[in-house]
Amino acid sequence: MRLFAAALATSATLLVGAGAAPAADIGANDDTAKHLDDRGAAMFREMADLGLRQAVIAVRFRPSEPTVIQDKAQLDEVIPNAVAAGLDVVLAVYPYPPRELEAGLGSASLFGSYAGAVASIYPQVKRFVVGNEPNQPAFWRPQFNGSGANVSAAAFGGYLAAAYDALKAVDPEITVVGVGLSPRGNDRPRAKNNISTSPVRFLRALGAWYRRSGRATPIMDAFSFHPYPNEATDPLERGYGWPNAGFVNLDRVKQALWDAFHDTGQPTTLDGLELHLDEVGWQVSTARRPGYRGAENVPVTDEASQAVIYGELVRRAACDPDVAEISFFGFRDDGLRTGFQAGLQRVDGSARPAAEAVRAAIAETAGGCPGALVSWRPHAAVLGARMAVLPAPSTIAARIGAGEDARGALCIRALSRRASAPPRCTAIALRGLRPLRLQLQAPAGAGRRFEIAVELRALANATRTSRVVARAALPR
Q1: What is the pLDDT of residue 472?
Q2: Which helix (H) or strand (E) holds 12?
Q3: How confident is the model at residue 1, as a pLDDT?
């Protein structure tokens, strides 16, 4: 891994010739089958007919009932039906509800035992997603401690490690897909609601926990991310500002994984860690459609726009060799509008235009990427490091910015031949995209020409550094 030093780590997303990357497997993340009379037998056949390859089904671990396999009676029928339809079954195992985690119920070891028991009961399942948006309070609490430091990442890390070890003990061939990270978080420990952690900062905290733990083995074979849009009315190209991330910001996710785990026992995308986009969906209008109840609670798009986006998602995923899987959430809609209506089918089972768009895109990408392949290498510098200086009669104003969290020093040095004093330096810290403005007092008797330098280190990875230098002269 150390071979990817400075020259290779200069980075970003490069487009190289059209090519032969294998297309990502396409599927759906949907629990509808548990509640159907035939336990999804017909629905799974319809999924397979569209070219879908896998069905992701949730299995919740209730901390207050650590030995009870939730929904076991339904799973006993649903899983064989999906397999009979030719689908790979993926079980998404995670603790729920978060209030029980917050109350101190359950433990990492109990969760690991639970995951191992599920794998033993269903040996035909060879892929497990462990975790579901642990950076969101709807699934993990608390997110922060009383001093405002993130605690959800470390707590979840213990659960993920325990599940990894238990699943591998049952069957070393099981693929453990970690985290199931939400695309957004506000990083505000004292917010009035939705106290959450952004994906980039969550991964930073998870990596810090991993390094402190002394663990030398992986905690996941693949990484699960949920690249939902910020609003369903957003086009595919409208991602998120740092430190959040959407589908078009996957380079940001890869960088966060590299920063968190490079040179450890946990692989990154540079050495085999696949990306699984296990939940993604654009909600659509269900106005005047039969079978739906309640009032819509979020902005929604139209079915034609959804179809275009879903087809493009499939095609673009086929051109990113790191993306191994996309699962739409879900295949069939919820009937209650406070739920989620982004499926390839409406609640009555009728197909949306998105179904045919996905079928066509799967066929188009059967031989691999239909366009230009995406290649990525990690950054070696602080993202977006910059500085502007503006002299005033007796001071120099410096405006320093970066595209991520960083720390460092700002130094001013006289350029006069008579000046021999050392540079005057001030420690600085940058939080996200907010620039820092400082007034620098010119040293007395040092002349009127100065060099101002800022040296920054990325908070996510101290090996990434940048130095920006400017010169300024005080007006006479």
Answers
A1: 85
A2: strand 12-18
A3: 38
C-alpha–C-alpha distance, residues 358 and 356, integer Å? 5
**Cα–Cα–Cα angle for 64, 67, 73, nearest 5°?**
110
Q: Flag whether pLDDT at 134 surpasses 70.
A: yes
Q: What is the CATH number of domain 386-473?
A: 2.60.40.10
Amino acid at 236: L
Token duo for residue 465 = 């550094």
Q: Which two tokens stand for residue 470?
A: 């400017």
Query: Which pLDDT score is estimated for 392?
Result: 72
3 Cβ neighbours under 8 A, 6+ residues apart? none
Quickly state the pLDDT bin for 390 (edges 50, 70, 90): confident
Order of strands across the sheet that contains 406-414: 424-430, 406-414, 449-458, 461-473
pLDDT of residue 9: 38
> How far is 269 from 262, CA to CA, in rounded Å?
10
pLDDT recorded at residue 21: 52
pTM: 0.92
Q: What tokens does 65 get?
A: 């009932």
Percent pLDDT > 70 in the chain is 92
d(CA 182, CA 226): 5
**Is-cis flag, bond preceding 391, omega within 30?**
no
Q: Tokens 């031989």 correspond to what residue?
A: 367
Class of domain 15-377: alpha beta
CA atoms of 473 and 41, how far apart (whole Å): 77
Compute the distance between CA of residue 90 and CA of residue 325 in angstroms, rounded to an integer: 11
Rounded CA gap, 114 and 359, in Å?
36
**DSSP 3-state assignment of 409?**
strand
What mean pLDDT is reported for the chain? 92
Question: How many Cβ atoms from other residues are within 10 Å of residue 137's Cβ?
Answer: 21
**What are the boundaries of each domain within the chain?**
15-377, 386-473
Q: Give the pLDDT score at 22.
A: 58
Q: Contact at 8 Å (CB) between 40 and 48?
A: no
What is the model's pLDDT at position 419? 57
Position 438: which residue type? Answer: L
Paired tokens of 425? 């330096």
Q: Please report, to the nearest 10 degrees, the dihedral formed by the alpha carbons of residues 3, 5, 8, 11 taken in order.
A: 140
Burial 21-42 (b: 16+ CB within 10 A, else e): bebbbbbbbbbbbbebeebbbe
Tokens (6 digits) for 50: 């569209």
- Percent over 90 (pLDDT), the chain: 85
pLDDT at residue 120 above 70? yes
Amino acid letter, 386: R
451 token code pair: 């060099």
CB 271 within 8 A of CB 257: no
